[in-house]
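Appendix B, example 12.
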Amino acid sequence: MRTASLLLMVRRELARTRGPLFSAGFGIAVGVGALVFFLSLGLGARKVLLGEVFPINQVELEPQKTSAGLLSLLGGPHEPASIDAETVAALRAIDGVTEVYPKLRFRFPSMARGGKEILGREIGTHEMVGDGIDPELLSGDVDAQLFADPLKADAKVCRVNEDCPEAQYCELPSEAEQGKCSAPVPAVVSRYLVELFDHAVAPAHGLPPVAETLVTRAQGVVFDMTLGNSLLGVARQGKERKVKIRVVGISSKAIDLGVTLPAPVVRRWNREYAGHKAADTYSSLVVRVEDASATAHVITAAQNYSLSPRDTRARDVSVLISSVLAILLLVSGVILLVAALNITHTFRVLVTERAHEIGLYRALGATRGDMRRWLLSMAAVVGIAAGAVGCVVARGAAWIADWRGRVDLPDFPFKPDSFFVFPPWLFAVGVAFAAIFAVLGAVGPAIRAAHTDPARTLGRDR
């Protein structure tokens, strides 16, 4: 049978049987709609949770914790475990690792206060947490020149802040008789901290949100930070003094809760307040991998250097999303399976009702393969049409869900503009699944039609 003849038969039969076929395709459309809707919701959750909140393609490693810390508190000063440069180089050589970001944690107590320029009043914290990273690692987030150590070798000598030009302060180390004038130390904060402030802290204290302001106006926002003293105690060495810091941007490489400064600055302050070892080693490493599947391999390799993940939330969230998504997809699969059974029933009735026509086609020379292709082609057309309808319904349902989310849900950290992600391949997958299930449902009736005996069928009608 020629293709043109086959298409003509399919078109005529679709027109004659549009009622039953519409009912059969309805289940396919519902199943595909649910499948596409849940998949897009899962992709949207992964994009926000595993892309912005808990990046799945990176892991922060730190020295494994032991009970020695408690003993050191009882017997003397606590010296936390650290990471040397050789370990950093070894991790960079691991297969699948693309980047390693060494971090240098504050090893001294500190406090901070400021923000009147954008908030209308001073705010502060009695315990400032922070770390330092190399400026070049912020490429793409912040201009490297903005995030450089501001202390220049040829800077003006000073003893107090009044000796320096406006907008500068006197960087005077604890044991030095004179210091150098320095611009405020640049700092970056994390998107997580900004979102937390905007949607939790600011509303509770009647403050304006600052997410966009930090990016557009941060060049003029300067905070005073006290080194060597905080609510929890004083540094083991050095004397209390104040410095100025300026927020220059937001970066995914910044510490979640606190500030991130250039590594040379933190190294200098750690040496001043905690000793040489605190300045020459690292406190943790952020390791980025080519693919999320390589994360487990990196964690295993890091154990050889007594390093362990600082936070497993990304892995836990990934497992949770995958589990919930698997359940929802199972529901969609059950719907499609029921729809396929409905297709089977519809086409079985169709074969019974068209037995005389099928026998006539066979008597006129149509082969068994022609009959199979005829019914399977009809099923494929029904499946494709139902799949397309299901995709449109899923997209519309997602639009309604996003609209209701904007209207009914309050602002919360990392609230996305859309809870769904619809890549082009998702619609192709939906239509393909619809066609496959429809064709599978029609296989049995197609085989039955192909084995129709024309002599017996036409003889019965005489």
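Residues 67-76 have pLDDT under 50 and may be disordered. The first strand starts at residue 58 and ends at 63.
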